[in-house]
Amino acid sequence: MNNYRQIVSIALLITSVVLILTGGLILLHLDSLTVMHLHKYFGVAFMVTALLHMGINSKPLRHYLGMRSLVVPLLVAAVLLVAAIAAYDMTRHHGYGRYARDTTFFCR
């Protein structure tokens, strides 16, 4: 179990760093299609590893939060993951940012 904890923690760290870097590039308008894709895919990977991290560390997390069960927080996180995947599907069909077919919404 400890080996999984280390792997998930390192994956969470790597996805966080990539999201911070690509988010900064997007914020500074130094983005490209590659940066946008990296941000999108590492965002989904971050959510998956965060859920795994919460599951592996459920006992300390429950103790810290003073909860008997993490069912509700994990369900909320899973619903947010499904919503993010649905949003990804929408961006795939409709585009996003300056790469959208119709950018009038993003230029306001």
Task: Give a brief outline of the structure.
The chain is mainly alpha-helical and 108 residues long.
What is the radius of gyration? 17 Å
- Strand content is under 5%
Q: Distance N terminus to C terminus? A: 50 Å
Helix percentage range: over 70%
* Oligomerization: single chain
Label the structural class.
Answer: mainly alpha
Q: Major β-sheet, in short? A: none
What is the residue-averaged pLDDT? 78
- The helix tally amounts to 4
- The total count of strands amounts to 0
Would you identify the regions where 5 or more consecutive residues have pLDDT less than 50? 101-108
Encode the helix/strand succession as letters.
HHHH
Q: Quick one: overall form?
A: globular
Tell me what you see in this structure:
The protein is an all-alpha fold and 108 residues long. The chain has 4 helices and no strands. The protein is globular. It starts with a helix and ends in a 14-residue tail after the last helix.
Q: Which descriptors apply to this entry?
A:
mainly alpha, 108 residues, 4 helices, 76% helix, globular
Write the layout of secondary structure elements.
Blueprint lengths: L1 H26 L5 H24 L1 H8 L5 H24 L14
Helix pairs in contact: 1-2, 2-4
